[in-house]
Amino acid sequence: MRKFVPYKPRLTGRAQRLRRDAPPAERKLWYEYLRYLPEKFTRQKPLGSYVVDFYCAQRRLVIELDGDSHFANGADWYDGRRTETLAALGVRVLRFTNKEVMEGFEGVCLHIERVLKA
Predict the structure, then answer these.
(1) What pTM value is reported for the model?
(2) Is residue 36 pLDDT above 50, yes or no?
(3) Which of 9, 17, 67, 95 is the most exposed place for a label (fewest CB within 10 A)?
(4) Over 60: is that where the pLDDT of 69 sits?
(5) How far from each other are the two terminal CA atoms of the chain, in whole angstroms?
(6) Residue 21 — φ and ψ, nearest 5°?
(7) What is the mean pLDDT of the chain?
(8) Could you give the C-alpha distances from 67 to 56, 89, 112, in angstroms and in order?
(9) Measuring CA to CA, how many Å separate 42 from each of 2, 35, 82?
(10) Does the domain made of 9-117 have the CATH classification 3.40.50.12780?
(11) Bridge partners for 46 per DSSP
């Protein structure tokens, strides 16, 4: 398995915009938790043909936060395909809703901790 996950360079500008315009749930998870972990996470990381919300290369772990658009027509199919594609690259994907982060922050953090310790 490759150490480096390839990506499409054209996604770099989009990733930068997404970092700058992050929704509240992403900002909360980053500024109140992920950036302080010993495992290094990056925000809005291009992987393959996608830009993922958070990525830990050391653990090959993606954390995705799903807002309202992820529950619209066909979005669940797209998210499933995205997860399968990333899994084929050797990357594990954790998904949480924005609501889970905003209303159950401690539980989300505990779940991430359990996965990182496994």
Answers:
(1) 0.86
(2) yes
(3) 9
(4) no
(5) 20
(6) -110, 35
(7) 89
(8) 21, 25, 19
(9) 19, 8, 18
(10) no
(11) 51
Q: How many CB atoms lie within 10 A of CB 111?
A: 15
Q: Is pLDDT above 80 for 3?
A: no
CA dihedral 93, 31, 40, 11 (to 10 degrees): 60
- Asked if 33 and 69 touch (Cβ cutoff 8 Å), the reply is no
Long-range contacts of 96-99 (CB under 8 A, 24+ apart): 96/63, 96/64, 96/65, 96/66, 97/65, 97/66, 97/67, 97/70, 98/23, 98/24, 98/25, 98/65, 98/66, 98/67, 98/68, 99/25
**CA dist 90 → 3, 14, 63 (Å):** 9, 23, 14
